[in-house]
Amino acid sequence: MAGKLCGDVLGVLLALVICVTRPEHVSSAQRELGKGVSGNASATSPPGSDNAIRAGPAGDGPRPTPRTGPYFDLAMSKNVTALLGKTAYLNCRVKNLGNKTLNMQVSWVRHRDIHLLTVGRYTYTSDQRFRAIHLPHSEDWTLQIKYPQHRDSGIYECQISTTPHMSHFIHLNVVEPTTEIIGGPDLYIDRGSTINLTCVVLYSPEPPAYIFWNHNDAIISYDSPRGGVSVVTEKGETTTSFLLIQQARPSDSGTYQCNPSNAQSKSVMVHVLNEANSIFPLSGEYPAAMQRGGQAFAPTSPAHCFVLAVSLLISLS
Q1: Which is it for strands 266-273 and 254-260: parallel, antiparallel or unpaired?
Q2: Is there a contact between 90 and 170 (Cβ–Cβ < 8 Å)?
Q3: Which helix (H) or strand (E) holds 119?
Q4: Residue 123: its pLDDT value, please?
């Protein structure tokens, strides 16, 4: 009886050593097993099942034929995002219209009020902001909208006067870019540290041509005798401008304004504090859980194996 108990204890200890020193074998084997099941599911599907792959004989299905009538070139007739107050162009490209323009016309209709805006090269609206543009021998029929407003957003129909008529719908979205300064409206900076102001321009169909910064209503000069001032601007769908001022001093306090060329300006109040009045801790430490990203222990960790071994020993005693 004592020999059997000793054998059981040795077996448990051996399992504990293997589990602690080589836990990856268990998890890797499980991963390989799972990979084999999920990756080969379709290969083992019986004929007639949803996962079965069927290859039909070559030549099945209708063959493409040349178009014999007019049609829309969708790649050149896309939705438009326009800047508030800046001229917008809605383009509709019609292929294969040829010399049929005497009998067929391309028109623009506004869906909001089913209003006929243009027919061919002629404009049929009293709103002088709208104009039809079509060059001779061109496939493009363009609707120009000057000074677009938010109310102009919506669906516009490009229509070919076939029987029945053909239509392609284009959505116009009139947006107004917005400007934000991260961390505003007040920022508190320790004296001697670096002031880092970040200005973001959102909802702009195109990047601003320029962004300049003001300090207390005066344009910031990057080559001023003060020195240590620089600006980095990254343009794209979202444009970001970084203003960096090194070795902050009390005279750097005040109102800073970000001024994009195509959006409203935004301001932030900066307060440079003396060291005695600093409200920021010098330590930048974070809890261990934050540093590790909240990762949990793996099921085959040594701690898990130890608990399992102790439980087995108790059950055998």
Answers
A1: antiparallel
A2: yes
A3: strand 115-119
A4: 94
- Say if residues 189 and 272 touch (Cβ distance below 8 Å): yes
Per DSSP, the three-state class of 263 is: coil
The answer for residues whose C-beta is within 8 angstroms of residue 145's C-beta and 6 or more apart is: 82, 87, 88, 89, 90, 129, 130, 152, 172
* Amino acid occupying residue 8: D
Which pLDDT does position 66 carry in this prediction? 53
Q: How confident is the model at residue 13, as a pLDDT?
A: 55
Cβ distance 204 to 239 under 8 Å? Answer: yes
**For the chain, which residues make up each domain, given as ranges?**
71-175, 178-273
Superfamily of domain 178-273: Immunoglobulins (2.60.40.10)
CA separation for the pair 41, 73 (Å, rounded): 41
Predicted pLDDT of residue 6: 46
Whether the model pTM is above 0.70: no
201 within 8 A of 238, measured Cβ to Cβ? yes
Which stretches in the chain have pLDDT values below 70? 1-67, 99-102, 275-317
Give a three-class secondary structure readout of 14-82: HHHHHHHHCHHHHHHHHHHHHHHHHHCCCCCCCCCCCCCCCCCCCCCCCCCCCCCCCEECHHHCCCEEE
138-192 pLDDT, tens digit each: 999 999 999 999 999 999 999 999 888 999 999 999 988 899 999 878 999 899 9
Nearest to 201 by CA among 251, 240, 163, 248: 240
Q: Do domains 71-175 and 178-273 have the same CATH topology?
A: yes
Task: Give helix then strand counts, H and E, for the chain.
Answer: 4, 19
Tokens encoding 139: 């496939």
Of 182, 191, 211, 198, which is closest to residue 253 (Cα–Cα)?
191
Domain spanning 71-175: CATH superfamily: Immunoglobulins (2.60.40.10)
DSSP secondary structure code for residue 150 in this structure: G
